[in-house]
């Protein structure tokens, strides 16, 4: 299945990519651990079926030192013993924040309380923004049928500079 359009080759697409990359840089500079950011981005991308984002976030996480065991278990994090309580709270938030239509009130009070227990306001702001950003990226990639497999660590950061 070939991509329907190369959005990055358009003027507006190139501008959007740069802004997405700059937002990613802002989030990476937050106090929310980069490993948590990559796990959250990977989980949303798995749920949304976004091959280029699964490719990107798996490779970025590995380049940042994430283990293959943890990366392989993200899709089944509830049944895995390798994630901290804080990471579990973030993964629950991204799942509920990604599947908004499945929960009439969006993110549950229970999940929000778990997030509040482990993260401060700056980190929660970064986490909420990350959930929104990755879901937007996933949707655009899926709509235009972008393919995964060619991403190299650092490519997104290069777009921001």
Automatic annotation (TrEMBL):
Q: Domain Carboxymuconolactone decarboxylase-like: where?
A: 15-96
Coiled-coil region(s): none
Q: List all membrane-crossing ranges.
A: none
Entry-linked PANTHER family: 4-CARBOXYMUCONOLACTONE DECARBOXYLASE FAMILY PROTEIN (AFU_ORTHOLOGUE AFUA_6G11590), BLL7811 PROTEIN
Entry's NCBIfam families? ahpD_dom
Name of the molecule in the record:
AhpD family alkylhydroperoxidase
Organism equals Amycolatopsis viridis
